[in-house]
Amino acid sequence: MLHILYIIAITAEAMTAALSAGRRNMDWVGVCMIAWVTALGGGTIRNILLGHYPMTWVSHPEYLLITAGAALFAALIASFMRRLKMLFLYLDALGLVVFTIIGCQLAEEMHLPVIIILLSGMITGCAGGVLRDVLCNDIPLLFRKEVYASVAIVTGGVYLGMEALGSSAQWATVIAAVIGLILRLLAIRYEWQMPKFVYHEEWE
Amino acid sequence: MLHILYIIAITAEAMTAALSAGRRNMDWVGVCMIAWVTALGGGTIRNILLGHYPMTWVSHPEYLLITAGAALFAALIASFMRRLKMLFLYLDALGLVVFTIIGCQLAEEMHLPVIIILLSGMITGCAGGVLRDVLCNDIPLLFRKEVYASVAIVTGGVYLGMEALGSSAQWATVIAAVIGLILRLLAIRYEWQMPKFVYHEEWE
Amino acid sequence: MLHILYIIAITAEAMTAALSAGRRNMDWVGVCMIAWVTALGGGTIRNILLGHYPMTWVSHPEYLLITAGAALFAALIASFMRRLKMLFLYLDALGLVVFTIIGCQLAEEMHLPVIIILLSGMITGCAGGVLRDVLCNDIPLLFRKEVYASVAIVTGGVYLGMEALGSSAQWATVIAAVIGLILRLLAIRYEWQMPKFVYHEEWE
């Protein structure tokens, strides 16, 4: 079940990433690379940091084909994708909570401390978007806008909390995913923003 | 033989990288760093992603000295290097195919799937330039211009195809390198460009 | 002793990193991320390159809490921190030499060649700042300004030199730290700059 949602999520992430690449006038290599980095980069960075080999896409190279295909398809139907903007925002929210829970589960299986489990979920959910923004030469959106990383933390927290209360992993996953999704959709709907720290002093 | 070409290629990559650093007014530390990242970064990223330790430059620290020396030498003779522009474009093309084949061979020895072997070649051939552009605060050139990553894919494909047809690794290497080189030189000569995906809609 | 200085240094690095994040109008997630990357990123990159697992902050997750807390505290008292500018420049110099020596020691314990030991020290001391600048969408300051990486090289060189002369690791640490600190403070005081390589020719 989580596996199917994962495939849907990486496909959707790859398609929106293709539009980011298009706004930077990239060629088809750039489109595929940005799609891979956005859809699979979060899990990759998590695995590198935790020393967990092999990478998901090395054991499942079909994910590379799926995401590349989705990205090139999105480039073809770019003018149509505009009308699906809300759908893709929802799929991105789905991806965020699914990636986060998968990241938490992996760190749990490695018997890592609670903070690292939460961080593993957050990195899996968010780092792909950060990599995309670095490669597109932007300041990562994650660091500046919207309730996004916070959703990953809440999702991971609910998941761990449910398990600590004696819930099965299945129920913890469902409840954490639903709460995370609702939170993210509310954030999109009401345009919630995190308080910003603005500092204009020149320091060095 | 491939080893000698590899040394020539990292030396040439380090020298052109030094000029990139110079265009950004970097000091000698920056010149060395950009040279290392450009010449050795592709193989390093591949090794990190595939979990292949130790790094080439840890077992062969002399590569660090060679590339740093070449970069500082290039900075010294910068005004003269201008006249050698075509020579260095050719050496860069040589580096691209040599790095690609080395990357394919390494993934082959690890018994990875075909797609990963191709990707390993592409990352080895191209990722150094991407890292250089990120550190110089540019949108990676690879994603926007020229037939470059495509040459890596064709080179790797010919190499694997030859082997599938029963050829020895030596012959596969020679044929793949020659075809890759010719393709890249034609791309330089006729200024081939990949089709771009241009998308100006604001999305989110 | 080195351990206590390490805690002080990552706290100080996290606090100055928070101000960098504030200048880019980041939210609290961005502030924490930039703090983590700046304070712990050098050691993390070193561990990834050397294949040394687990990461420091996985075995000591309390470092994540300390640095995040310090960064958020710095954001709260930002207007006051301005007056402490010199104090934080000194603490940053302390961090540079402490991180460098820790990086050298780790590579030494792995029985790596001398060049790699020096590089390991330099990466540990300097890479956090490079990552911070990449995420803030700047050309890394390290590559353009000031006697900074050179201090790391001298510190590592003195440390290794002392040991080669038969000194104990303790004495080598003390002498290398003192010489490194003096060099960095002189560089700040007299605004030393490394010679730059400026090159305006368009190349390709």
TrEMBL record, chains A, B, C:
Q: What is its main location?
A: membrane
Localization, UniProt: Cell membrane
Topology in the lipid bilayer: Multi-pass membrane protein
What positions does the domain Glycine transporter occupy?
4-77, 90-162
What InterPro entries does the entry give? Gly_transporter
GO annotation, cellular component aspect:
plasma membrane
Transmembrane portions of the chain: 28-51, 63-80, 87-108, 114-135, 147-162, 168-187
Alphabetic keyword roster:
Cell membrane, Membrane, Transmembrane, Transmembrane helix
**Family stated for the protein in its record:** Belongs to the UPF0126 family.
Protein name as annotated? Uncharacterized membrane protein YeiH
Biological source species: Chitinophaga rupis
